[in-house]
Amino acid sequence: MARLRRAVDPLRDVVICAGDVGFNVHRIIMCNCSPYFEALFCRHAGDRTHFTIPDVSADMMQVIVDFAYSGSVSVTEENIQDLLIATDYLIVTDIVEACNNFLLEHLTPENCIGVRRFTISGPQAQHKAHFLLMNRFEEVVSSQEFLELSLQELSDILDSDDLNVDEEKTVYEAAVRWINHEPEQRTSHLPALLSKARLAMSSTDDIKTLMSDPYLTNNSQCVQILDDVLRLKRQLSDATPPRRFLSDLAARPRLPNAIIFATGGWSTDDVTNITEVYDVRADRWLDITDHQEKPRCHHGTVYHDGFIYCIGGYDGRECCNSVRKFDVERHVWLEAAPMNQDRCFVSVACLDGYIYALGGLYCLRTAERYRPEKNKWSLIEPMHVGRHDGGCAVFNKKVGGYDGNNYLKSVEAYDPQTDEWHEIPPMSTTRSNFGTVVINNKLFVMGGINDSDDISSVEYYDVKTNTWTAAGQMRTAGNGLSCCEVSNHPSLKQYTTSRDTLPQLEEV
Prior knowledge:
By secondary structure, the chain is an alpha+beta fold. The longest helix has 19 residues, at 220-238.
């Protein structure tokens, strides 16, 4: 017979048994706690007062009973798995929700694989766990859970377009760590895992480094894979612009974890509302213009907490104080509170949860900041010097411009540690009034004007190689556009080029 965990109370009309413990409880209170108990008691109406609950421990039943009477529950790392299983089985939805909230709040690279596997966890927790796994993969690789993946699980992860790695050799290094955990059972899987790396997207130097790795050179299948990759890279380098990719997995770009969002500007002597996004890894621009949006140029653009804010600017008739925000998840434009002052050629930046708008035409000293959760702008202390068409950036770089006589392509870089400026290689194109964004540690410049011509070309500076490289052209030439980076957002896939539609490069 089950022992009672509390003294018998005549007002408590049923006993619930879990394990070897009985809980003397009120039937009506347990019915209010869960439809499971309501159905159980209704199904056995009458004089029956003892009910045995299978597959639930006494400790978990104690938590559930306490919750039924108090309305509160303590979820911990130690009890969450058993508690979620028990409460899902007994349909105690409030505790299930509390467990899923706990998972969301405590999700880390060390536990995301387990949460992703745990099918009882809610879809939100599983989705967030998958997103974290794919976007912080290099941290996940260091976890114990990573070493316990099955071959199929690891293959699916390495095979995914969603996997975010800066360098594809990371995929190989991850495979080696997994193999070395149980080398006798796993070494034979090296060629299959190596083939998941998109090595044709890597530098030739990185591939040659791999070709000198004894771990690979002692495996004839791996040597063949690397030889095939070098052949593909030669084909890619021989391709004429626009850059083309093979359908072969080794040359298929993964999805980006960041995009460039560019909007507005002057084009063919008129203000536009054109909006384009740049898929960095596929080197493609997509037009996502909403033709109901009003045109603007010389405005500021900044990304914050799921929204892209377009601030101030010139609408074709006058400077304006209006603010529009683009909901990245829902793909819609919304109105935000206007600024206190009209500003075009405005500088914008995010800091500590606020959006700042500084200066503007004509050399305004005033500045204000926006608090998103209150949808309100407030004036702040004015600057010492009036400014318009200034810049707010984290990269501490300045590019090109107009010196009053000539359009420039020269570039200088400032080193804050030495307090010195130094020249870096010039851009390939002279340009002024262009957009700049730092993304994946590369400085992108796009659009602009030189002489009397609007520009659609894009190029980027790589600090590692100290070189400028041409990137895919924008769909529309223009100057006075504004742009920003959008990164680590779960809805970025809708702003990328489908990998299945990328053109193929014919085999030779």
